[in-house]
Design a protein that fits this description.
Blueprint: H1 33-36, H2 44-52, E1 60-62, E2 66-69, E3 73-76, H3 77-82, E4 99-100, E5 113-119, H4 132-143, E6 150-155, E7 162-166, E8 178-181, E9 192-194, H5 218-232, E10 253-254, H6 281-290, E11 297-306, E12 312-317, E13 327-336, E14 343-351, E15 357-359, H7 364-367, E16 371-381, E17 388-396, E18 400-404, E19 418-427
Parallel strand pairs: 3-8, 5-6, 5-7, 7-9
Antiparallel strand pairs: 1-2, 2-3, 4-10, 8-9, 11-12, 11-13, 14-15, 14-16, 17-18, 17-19
Helix pairs in contact: 4-5
Length: 430
Protein backbone atom coordinates (compact mmCIF):
# COMPACT_ATOMS: atom_id res chain seq x y z
CA UNK A 1 0.00 0.00 0.00
CA UNK A 2 1.15 3.55 -0.34
CA UNK A 3 1.58 5.94 2.45
CA UNK A 4 -2.12 6.24 3.07
CA UNK A 5 -4.83 3.62 2.46
CA UNK A 6 -8.42 4.24 1.43
CA UNK A 7 -10.61 1.29 0.45
CA UNK A 8 -10.51 -2.33 1.99
CA UNK A 9 -12.03 -2.38 -2.35
CA UNK A 10 -9.62 -4.95 0.78
CA UNK A 11 -6.40 -2.95 2.25
CA UNK A 12 -11.08 -4.43 2.63
CA UNK A 13 -8.03 -3.26 0.06
CA UNK A 14 -10.61 -4.42 2.91
CA UNK A 15 -6.82 -0.50 -1.94
CA UNK A 16 -3.33 0.56 -0.77
CA UNK A 17 -1.91 3.69 0.68
CA UNK A 18 -2.98 6.82 -0.97
CA UNK A 19 -0.87 9.78 0.01
CA UNK A 20 1.16 11.68 -2.58
CA UNK A 21 4.31 13.59 -1.72
CA UNK A 22 4.84 17.10 -2.99
CA UNK A 23 8.39 17.38 -1.66
CA UNK A 24 10.24 14.85 -3.76
CA UNK A 25 13.77 13.62 -3.18
CA UNK A 26 15.78 14.78 -6.20
CA UNK A 27 17.99 11.69 -6.16
CA UNK A 28 15.10 9.25 -6.49
CA UNK A 29 14.32 7.93 -10.00
CA UNK A 30 10.81 8.55 -11.35
CA UNK A 31 10.63 11.41 -8.89
CA UNK A 32 8.31 13.52 -11.00
CA UNK A 33 5.81 10.78 -11.78
CA UNK A 34 3.11 12.15 -9.52
CA UNK A 35 3.41 15.70 -10.88
CA UNK A 36 4.00 15.13 -14.58
CA UNK A 37 0.99 12.79 -14.88
CA UNK A 38 -1.37 14.70 -12.60
CA UNK A 39 -4.96 14.47 -13.84
CA UNK A 40 -6.61 17.89 -13.97
CA UNK A 41 -10.02 16.83 -15.24
CA UNK A 42 -11.62 16.72 -18.65
CA UNK A 43 -12.41 13.01 -18.99
CA UNK A 44 -16.16 12.98 -18.39
CA UNK A 45 -16.17 9.28 -17.53
CA UNK A 46 -13.42 9.69 -14.95
CA UNK A 47 -15.03 12.83 -13.54
CA UNK A 48 -18.26 10.88 -13.07
CA UNK A 49 -16.36 8.02 -11.42
CA UNK A 50 -14.79 10.43 -8.92
CA UNK A 51 -18.15 12.01 -8.17
CA UNK A 52 -19.96 8.71 -7.71
CA UNK A 53 -17.36 7.37 -5.30
CA UNK A 54 -16.96 10.57 -3.31
CA UNK A 55 -13.40 11.10 -4.56
CA UNK A 56 -13.71 14.53 -6.13
CA UNK A 57 -10.94 15.88 -3.88
CA UNK A 58 -8.61 12.94 -4.47
CA UNK A 59 -5.21 13.18 -6.14
CA UNK A 60 -5.43 11.43 -9.50
CA UNK A 61 -2.64 10.47 -11.88
CA UNK A 62 -2.93 9.40 -15.50
CA UNK A 63 -0.87 6.22 -15.95
CA UNK A 64 -1.91 5.46 -19.51
CA UNK A 65 -4.10 2.37 -19.23
CA UNK A 66 -5.30 3.39 -15.76
CA UNK A 67 -6.05 6.37 -13.62
CA UNK A 68 -4.47 6.01 -10.18
CA UNK A 69 -6.54 7.56 -7.38
CA UNK A 70 -4.96 8.57 -4.06
CA UNK A 71 -2.02 6.18 -4.58
CA UNK A 72 -4.36 3.27 -4.03
CA UNK A 73 -7.22 2.79 -6.45
CA UNK A 74 -6.88 1.75 -10.08
CA UNK A 75 -9.58 2.91 -12.49
CA UNK A 76 -9.30 1.17 -15.85
CA UNK A 77 -9.98 3.54 -18.77
CA UNK A 78 -11.67 0.87 -20.90
CA UNK A 79 -14.03 0.05 -18.02
CA UNK A 80 -14.76 3.74 -17.56
CA UNK A 81 -15.61 4.09 -21.24
CA UNK A 82 -17.87 1.04 -21.26
CA UNK A 83 -19.70 2.19 -18.14
CA UNK A 84 -19.15 -0.88 -15.98
CA UNK A 85 -18.41 1.29 -12.94
CA UNK A 86 -21.86 2.94 -13.14
CA UNK A 87 -23.73 0.96 -10.52
CA UNK A 88 -26.86 1.61 -8.51
CA UNK A 89 -26.76 2.45 -4.83
CA UNK A 90 -28.38 0.22 -2.22
CA UNK A 91 -27.31 2.26 0.79
CA UNK A 92 -29.66 1.80 3.72
CA UNK A 93 -28.58 4.58 5.99
CA UNK A 94 -28.13 3.84 9.70
CA UNK A 95 -25.34 1.29 9.77
CA UNK A 96 -22.22 1.91 11.76
CA UNK A 97 -18.97 1.66 10.07
CA UNK A 98 -16.68 -0.38 7.87
CA UNK A 99 -17.65 0.15 4.29
CA UNK A 100 -17.87 -1.54 0.93
CA UNK A 101 -18.64 -0.41 -2.58
CA UNK A 102 -22.03 -1.07 -4.13
CA UNK A 103 -20.26 -3.30 -6.66
CA UNK A 104 -19.56 -6.79 -5.37
CA UNK A 105 -18.46 -10.11 -6.81
CA UNK A 106 -21.52 -11.99 -8.06
CA UNK A 107 -22.19 -14.90 -5.71
CA UNK A 108 -24.99 -16.37 -3.63
CA UNK A 109 -25.48 -18.06 -0.27
CA UNK A 110 -24.92 -21.82 -0.07
CA UNK A 111 -22.58 -21.64 -3.07
CA UNK A 112 -18.84 -21.12 -2.92
CA UNK A 113 -17.47 -18.71 -5.50
CA UNK A 114 -14.03 -19.69 -6.78
CA UNK A 115 -11.77 -16.76 -7.66
CA UNK A 116 -8.69 -17.71 -9.64
CA UNK A 117 -5.55 -15.66 -9.03
CA UNK A 118 -2.57 -15.70 -11.36
CA UNK A 119 0.90 -14.29 -10.71
CA UNK A 120 2.39 -12.65 -13.78
CA UNK A 121 5.94 -13.46 -14.91
CA UNK A 122 6.88 -9.86 -14.07
CA UNK A 123 6.95 -10.90 -10.39
CA UNK A 124 10.36 -12.49 -9.70
CA UNK A 125 10.51 -16.04 -8.38
CA UNK A 126 13.57 -15.34 -6.22
CA UNK A 127 15.30 -12.48 -4.47
CA UNK A 128 13.94 -9.63 -2.36
CA UNK A 129 11.31 -8.72 -4.97
CA UNK A 130 9.76 -12.17 -4.89
CA UNK A 131 6.22 -11.71 -3.56
CA UNK A 132 5.03 -15.19 -4.57
CA UNK A 133 5.16 -16.91 -1.15
CA UNK A 134 3.32 -14.00 0.45
CA UNK A 135 0.66 -14.02 -2.27
CA UNK A 136 0.07 -17.71 -1.64
CA UNK A 137 -0.10 -17.10 2.11
CA UNK A 138 -2.54 -14.21 1.67
CA UNK A 139 -4.88 -16.48 -0.30
CA UNK A 140 -4.68 -19.03 2.52
CA UNK A 141 -5.51 -16.30 5.05
CA UNK A 142 -8.65 -15.40 3.13
CA UNK A 143 -9.63 -19.03 2.60
CA UNK A 144 -9.35 -19.64 6.35
CA UNK A 145 -12.13 -17.15 7.16
CA UNK A 146 -15.13 -19.14 8.37
CA UNK A 147 -18.49 -18.89 6.58
CA UNK A 148 -16.91 -16.85 3.76
CA UNK A 149 -18.25 -17.95 0.40
CA UNK A 150 -15.40 -16.55 -1.68
CA UNK A 151 -12.60 -19.05 -2.19
CA UNK A 152 -9.28 -18.20 -3.80
CA UNK A 153 -7.14 -20.50 -5.93
CA UNK A 154 -3.65 -19.77 -7.26
CA UNK A 155 -3.36 -20.82 -10.91
CA UNK A 156 -0.33 -20.88 -13.19
CA UNK A 157 -2.12 -21.16 -16.53
CA UNK A 158 -5.53 -20.90 -18.12
CA UNK A 159 -8.28 -18.50 -17.17
CA UNK A 160 -7.96 -16.23 -14.15
CA UNK A 161 -10.01 -13.57 -12.36
CA UNK A 162 -7.26 -11.51 -10.72
CA UNK A 163 -3.83 -10.95 -12.23
CA UNK A 164 -1.04 -9.83 -9.90
CA UNK A 165 1.87 -8.20 -11.69
CA UNK A 166 4.59 -5.60 -11.26
CA UNK A 167 3.93 -2.02 -12.27
CA UNK A 168 6.54 -2.14 -15.05
CA UNK A 169 4.88 -0.58 -18.08
CA UNK A 170 2.18 1.01 -15.93
CA UNK A 171 4.33 2.62 -13.22
CA UNK A 172 2.58 3.72 -10.06
CA UNK A 173 4.13 6.46 -7.89
CA UNK A 174 7.35 5.55 -6.13
CA UNK A 175 5.77 5.99 -2.68
CA UNK A 176 2.84 3.65 -3.42
CA UNK A 177 3.46 0.00 -2.69
CA UNK A 178 0.56 -1.42 -4.70
CA UNK A 179 -2.82 -0.67 -6.24
CA UNK A 180 -5.93 -2.60 -7.17
CA UNK A 181 -9.16 -2.25 -9.12
CA UNK A 182 -12.71 -2.49 -7.83
CA UNK A 183 -15.21 -5.16 -8.88
CA UNK A 184 -17.27 -4.49 -11.98
CA UNK A 185 -19.97 -6.41 -13.84
CA UNK A 186 -19.99 -8.95 -11.00
CA UNK A 187 -16.31 -9.82 -11.48
CA UNK A 188 -13.40 -9.17 -9.10
CA UNK A 189 -11.24 -6.16 -9.79
CA UNK A 190 -8.06 -6.83 -11.75
CA UNK A 191 -5.13 -6.34 -11.95
CA UNK A 192 -3.23 -5.78 -8.73
CA UNK A 193 -0.06 -3.82 -9.45
CA UNK A 194 2.97 -4.18 -7.16
CA UNK A 195 5.68 -1.53 -7.02
CA UNK A 196 8.94 -3.48 -6.88
CA UNK A 197 11.00 -0.33 -6.24
CA UNK A 198 8.73 1.08 -3.54
CA UNK A 199 10.12 3.96 -1.51
CA UNK A 200 9.57 3.82 2.25
CA UNK A 201 8.99 7.39 3.42
CA UNK A 202 10.10 7.47 7.05
CA UNK A 203 9.64 11.18 7.65
CA UNK A 204 7.31 13.19 5.36
CA UNK A 205 9.11 16.40 6.33
CA UNK A 206 12.54 15.04 5.36
CA UNK A 207 12.68 13.50 1.86
CA UNK A 208 16.36 12.66 2.38
CA UNK A 209 15.32 10.15 5.03
CA UNK A 210 13.39 8.09 2.47
CA UNK A 211 14.52 4.53 1.71
CA UNK A 212 14.42 4.04 -2.05
CA UNK A 213 13.81 0.50 -3.31
CA UNK A 214 13.05 -0.65 0.22
CA UNK A 215 13.44 -4.35 0.94
CA UNK A 216 9.84 -5.07 1.90
CA UNK A 217 9.56 -7.53 4.83
CA UNK A 218 7.58 -10.70 4.24
CA UNK A 219 4.83 -9.79 6.73
CA UNK A 220 4.37 -6.41 5.05
CA UNK A 221 4.01 -8.05 1.63
CA UNK A 222 1.46 -10.46 3.04
CA UNK A 223 -0.69 -7.75 4.59
CA UNK A 224 -0.64 -5.61 1.47
CA UNK A 225 -1.79 -8.49 -0.71
CA UNK A 226 -4.72 -9.22 1.62
CA UNK A 227 -5.56 -5.52 1.59
CA UNK A 228 -5.48 -5.26 -2.19
CA UNK A 229 -7.57 -8.37 -2.71
CA UNK A 230 -10.02 -6.76 -0.32
CA UNK A 231 -10.38 -3.90 -2.75
CA UNK A 232 -10.78 -6.34 -5.62
CA UNK A 233 -13.85 -7.85 -3.96
CA UNK A 234 -15.41 -4.53 -3.00
CA UNK A 235 -14.04 -3.44 0.39
CA UNK A 236 -13.27 0.21 1.00
CA UNK A 237 -10.89 1.67 3.56
CA UNK A 238 -12.10 1.25 7.12
CA UNK A 239 -10.68 4.66 8.06
CA UNK A 240 -12.19 6.38 5.02
CA UNK A 241 -13.36 9.33 7.13
CA UNK A 242 -9.87 10.04 8.46
CA UNK A 243 -8.63 9.90 4.87
CA UNK A 244 -11.32 12.38 3.80
CA UNK A 245 -12.82 9.89 1.38
CA UNK A 246 -16.35 11.12 0.85
CA UNK A 247 -19.40 8.97 0.21
CA UNK A 248 -20.26 10.26 -3.25
CA UNK A 249 -23.71 9.38 -4.54
CA UNK A 250 -22.89 5.65 -4.56
CA UNK A 251 -20.17 3.30 -3.45
CA UNK A 252 -20.11 3.64 0.35
CA UNK A 253 -22.28 0.97 1.93
CA UNK A 254 -21.83 0.57 5.67
CA UNK A 255 -21.39 -2.88 7.17
CA UNK A 256 -23.83 -3.37 10.08
CA UNK A 257 -22.11 -4.07 13.37
CA UNK A 258 -18.74 -2.49 12.61
CA UNK A 259 -17.32 0.74 13.98
CA UNK A 260 -15.98 3.84 12.27
CA UNK A 261 -12.68 3.26 14.06
CA UNK A 262 -10.87 -0.07 14.00
CA UNK A 263 -7.10 0.38 14.41
CA UNK A 264 -6.48 -3.31 13.73
CA UNK A 265 -8.41 -3.55 10.47
CA UNK A 266 -6.46 -4.84 7.49
CA UNK A 267 -8.48 -2.45 5.35
CA UNK A 268 -7.20 0.73 7.00
CA UNK A 269 -5.54 3.07 4.54
CA UNK A 270 -2.14 4.65 5.04
CA UNK A 271 -0.68 1.41 6.32
CA UNK A 272 1.65 0.33 3.52
CA UNK A 273 4.50 -0.46 5.92
CA UNK A 274 2.36 -2.33 8.46
CA UNK A 275 3.11 -6.05 8.93
CA UNK A 276 0.44 -8.72 8.89
CA UNK A 277 -1.10 -9.42 12.29
CA UNK A 278 -4.31 -11.15 11.25
CA UNK A 279 -7.83 -9.94 10.65
CA UNK A 280 -9.57 -7.87 13.27
CA UNK A 281 -12.90 -9.22 14.60
CA UNK A 282 -14.68 -6.57 12.54
CA UNK A 283 -12.80 -7.59 9.38
CA UNK A 284 -14.15 -11.08 10.06
CA UNK A 285 -17.65 -9.72 10.61
CA UNK A 286 -17.41 -7.87 7.29
CA UNK A 287 -16.46 -11.02 5.36
CA UNK A 288 -19.10 -13.14 7.08
CA UNK A 289 -21.81 -10.52 6.54
CA UNK A 290 -21.20 -9.42 2.95
CA UNK A 291 -20.23 -12.82 1.56
CA UNK A 292 -21.75 -15.26 4.04
CA UNK A 293 -22.02 -18.84 2.83
CA UNK A 294 -24.63 -19.80 5.44
CA UNK A 295 -27.18 -16.98 5.26
CA UNK A 296 -28.61 -17.95 8.66
CA UNK A 297 -25.40 -17.23 10.60
CA UNK A 298 -25.50 -13.69 12.00
CA UNK A 299 -23.64 -11.70 14.67
CA UNK A 300 -25.12 -11.59 18.17
CA UNK A 301 -25.34 -7.81 18.54
CA UNK A 302 -25.15 -6.22 21.99
CA UNK A 303 -26.70 -2.85 22.91
CA UNK A 304 -26.93 -0.71 26.02
CA UNK A 305 -29.44 1.88 27.15
CA UNK A 306 -29.75 4.24 30.13
CA UNK A 307 -32.62 4.22 32.60
CA UNK A 308 -31.53 7.43 34.31
CA UNK A 309 -28.83 8.05 36.88
CA UNK A 310 -26.38 5.16 37.06
CA UNK A 311 -28.89 2.56 35.90
CA UNK A 312 -28.13 0.86 32.57
CA UNK A 313 -29.32 -2.27 30.84
CA UNK A 314 -28.06 -4.46 28.01
CA UNK A 315 -30.04 -5.90 25.10
CA UNK A 316 -29.28 -8.52 22.46
CA UNK A 317 -30.48 -9.30 18.96
CA UNK A 318 -29.53 -10.90 15.66
CA UNK A 319 -31.41 -8.11 13.89
CA UNK A 320 -29.22 -5.03 13.44
CA UNK A 321 -32.20 -2.70 13.08
CA UNK A 322 -34.12 -3.80 16.18
CA UNK A 323 -32.38 -1.51 18.68
CA UNK A 324 -31.35 1.47 16.55
CA UNK A 325 -32.07 3.96 19.34
CA UNK A 326 -29.76 2.17 21.76
CA UNK A 327 -25.99 2.40 22.10
CA UNK A 328 -24.26 -0.35 20.13
CA UNK A 329 -21.58 -2.14 22.16
CA UNK A 330 -20.26 -4.75 19.75
CA UNK A 331 -21.04 -8.35 18.91
CA UNK A 332 -20.69 -11.55 20.90
CA UNK A 333 -19.70 -14.12 18.32
CA UNK A 334 -22.06 -15.59 15.73
CA UNK A 335 -25.27 -17.55 16.15
CA UNK A 336 -28.07 -18.79 13.89
CA UNK A 337 -31.48 -17.59 12.77
CA UNK A 338 -32.62 -21.16 12.19
CA UNK A 339 -32.20 -24.28 14.30
CA UNK A 340 -29.07 -25.87 12.96
CA UNK A 341 -28.18 -29.39 14.05
CA UNK A 342 -26.76 -29.33 17.56
CA UNK A 343 -28.18 -25.92 18.50
CA UNK A 344 -30.88 -24.92 20.98
CA UNK A 345 -33.11 -21.83 21.21
CA UNK A 346 -31.76 -18.66 22.79
CA UNK A 347 -34.65 -16.99 24.62
CA UNK A 348 -34.89 -13.28 25.35
CA UNK A 349 -36.77 -12.30 28.48
CA UNK A 350 -38.10 -8.92 29.61
CA UNK A 351 -37.87 -8.09 33.31
CA UNK A 352 -40.23 -5.70 35.07
CA UNK A 353 -37.23 -3.49 35.91
CA UNK A 354 -36.22 -3.19 32.25
CA UNK A 355 -33.14 -5.36 32.75
CA UNK A 356 -33.51 -7.84 29.90
CA UNK A 357 -31.95 -11.29 29.94
CA UNK A 358 -31.05 -14.04 27.47
CA UNK A 359 -30.82 -17.73 28.29
CA UNK A 360 -31.13 -21.20 26.81
CA UNK A 361 -33.39 -22.06 29.76
CA UNK A 362 -37.07 -22.00 28.73
CA UNK A 363 -38.21 -22.17 32.35
CA UNK A 364 -37.04 -18.73 33.54
CA UNK A 365 -40.56 -17.22 34.07
CA UNK A 366 -41.47 -20.19 36.29
CA UNK A 367 -38.38 -19.52 38.38
CA UNK A 368 -38.90 -15.75 38.60
CA UNK A 369 -42.32 -14.34 37.71
CA UNK A 370 -40.80 -10.88 37.09
CA UNK A 371 -39.54 -12.25 33.77
CA UNK A 372 -41.75 -12.70 30.72
CA UNK A 373 -40.74 -14.34 27.47
CA UNK A 374 -40.14 -11.87 24.64
CA UNK A 375 -39.10 -14.25 21.85
CA UNK A 376 -36.49 -16.65 20.55
CA UNK A 377 -33.77 -14.45 19.06
CA UNK A 378 -31.74 -17.27 17.54
CA UNK A 379 -30.02 -20.57 18.16
CA UNK A 380 -26.78 -21.37 19.99
CA UNK A 381 -24.93 -24.40 21.30
CA UNK A 382 -25.38 -25.78 24.81
CA UNK A 383 -22.08 -27.67 24.78
CA UNK A 384 -18.60 -27.06 23.44
CA UNK A 385 -17.10 -28.35 20.21
CA UNK A 386 -14.04 -27.57 18.11
CA UNK A 387 -15.83 -24.81 16.18
CA UNK A 388 -17.50 -22.83 18.96
CA UNK A 389 -16.47 -20.69 21.92
CA UNK A 390 -18.06 -20.11 25.34
CA UNK A 391 -20.09 -17.05 26.26
CA UNK A 392 -19.66 -15.94 29.87
CA UNK A 393 -22.49 -14.42 31.89
CA UNK A 394 -22.12 -11.55 34.38
CA UNK A 395 -24.49 -9.40 36.43
CA UNK A 396 -24.28 -5.96 38.04
CA UNK A 397 -27.16 -4.31 39.95
CA UNK A 398 -26.70 -1.05 38.02
CA UNK A 399 -25.85 -2.60 34.64
CA UNK A 400 -28.01 -5.68 34.47
CA UNK A 401 -26.84 -8.79 32.66
CA UNK A 402 -23.77 -8.80 30.45
CA UNK A 403 -22.46 -11.52 28.14
CA UNK A 404 -18.97 -11.78 26.63
CA UNK A 405 -16.73 -14.26 24.84
CA UNK A 406 -13.71 -12.84 26.68
CA UNK A 407 -12.88 -14.77 29.85
CA UNK A 408 -10.76 -11.81 31.02
CA UNK A 409 -13.24 -9.08 30.08
CA UNK A 410 -12.07 -5.75 31.47
CA UNK A 411 -15.59 -4.32 31.39
CA UNK A 412 -16.62 -6.53 34.32
CA UNK A 413 -13.45 -6.06 36.37
CA UNK A 414 -14.89 -3.35 38.62
CA UNK A 415 -16.71 -3.71 41.92
CA UNK A 416 -20.22 -5.10 41.94
CA UNK A 417 -19.95 -7.62 39.12
CA UNK A 418 -20.76 -11.26 39.90
CA UNK A 419 -20.87 -14.37 37.75
CA UNK A 420 -18.43 -15.52 35.11
CA UNK A 421 -19.96 -18.89 34.35
CA UNK A 422 -20.58 -20.24 30.86
CA UNK A 423 -24.09 -19.42 29.64
CA UNK A 424 -23.95 -21.00 26.15
CA UNK A 425 -21.65 -21.36 23.13
CA UNK A 426 -21.50 -19.46 19.82
CA UNK A 427 -19.61 -19.88 16.57
CA UNK A 428 -16.02 -18.71 16.95
CA UNK A 429 -14.58 -15.63 15.27
CA UNK A 430 -11.69 -17.49 13.63
Amino acid sequence: MKRTFYLMAICVCLLFSCKMESDLDPVIPDQDLGLSNLYLGGDKDMDRFLELYGLKNAEVQDLGEFYFVDNCILANKDKLLSGVYDINSDKKGNENAQVRTTALVSSSAWNYKLIKVKIDNSIPSSGVDNWRPEIEQALEDLNDVKNFRLKFELVSSGDYDILIKSDVGDPIPYNAIAGADWPSSGLPGSPILINLDYTNINDPSNPYDDIYNWTVPSAVKRRNIVHEIGHCIGYRHTNYEDLNEGPGSIGQIYVPGTFTTDPNSVMNGGTANTPWSGFSPFDILTCRTIYNYDWGEVPLFTYRTSHGGNLMSHHWSGDWYEYQNYSYQGFTGFFYQYQKSGTVPLYRYNHTTGLDYISIDSNIPNIDSAFTLDKIIGYVYNSSNSENIPVYEWYHPNEGHYFTTNSNEGYVSGAGWVGGGVAFYVESFY
